[in-house]
Amino acid sequence: MKITEYVETLAREGELLAESAERAGTDTPVPTCPGWRVADLLRHTGAVHRWAAGYVRDAVVEPGPFPEAPELAGAELLAWYREGHEALVRTLTEAPADVQCWTFLPTAAPSPLAFWARRQAHETAVHRMDAEAALGVAYAQVAPEFAEDGVDELLTGFHARPRSLMRTQELRVLRVRSADTGAVWTVHLSPEPPRTVAGDTGDPADCEVIGEASWLYAALWNRLPLMGPGVTGDEALARQWVETAGIG
């Protein structure tokens, strides 16, 4: 996907998040984030937006502290969130294409600007689902191409890091297939961090997960149950994913 497409998605998803949060009310629990209320969701996402914008805007090349969110509520908190979201969209739109700044996933993005545009588009889309969960409405689906991209970022980026808890004592293989885009990922599980390879490597899969990209996106990010007819083989691996593979 192009940087402009990520930024357009970020702009749209961020506003949808705010709209659902406003309708739900800032004191409403968020069922997909146990222990959180909508206010916590807005504070977290608003702080992430400001954190990301700072690296790009100021070309910061070393990791820095995460900003603290103010103890606001109601309309004031929503205004604070929207301000940070709009500033992030503006920063990513106006930044030089060759800006150099810190990034944090092991997979190599085409550029730091592409990394942050991609990361914040997915960050915001997933948390938009959380706001919709609080409101009690069905998730608005993301486009198949964007969903496939988000699954790829999750499997090859986040779960390639040492902090991934998706481990198995014996070597296991989890295969993920997108029924509508044709993308396939083979996830090699072991006592080490998962190693994901694009495509069907031919290795026998202990568990296979297949579904439309938008469902895979929500399920693998743990916003929908990773169960049902799309999961075949050893369902214990799917249950383990739900229990250990959450990304904070």
Note down, in words, how this protein is organized:
This protein starts with a helix and ends with a helix. Strand 2 and strand 3 form a beta hairpin. The mean pLDDT is 96. With 248 residues, it is an alpha+beta fold. Helix 1 packs parallel to helix 4. The protein has 7 helices and 5 strands, in the order H-H-H-H-H-E-E-E-E-H-E-H. The chain has a 5-stranded mixed beta sheet with strand order 3-2-1-4-5.
Descriptive labels:
alpha+beta, five-stranded mixed sheet, 248 residues, 48% helix, 7 helices
Low-confidence stretches: none
Q: Please identify the structural class as seen in this structure.
A: alpha+beta
- Main beta sheet: 5 strands, mixed
**SSE run:** HHHHHEEEEHEH
Q: How do the strands line up in the largest sheet?
A: 3-2-1-4-5
Beta-strand content estimate: 5-15%
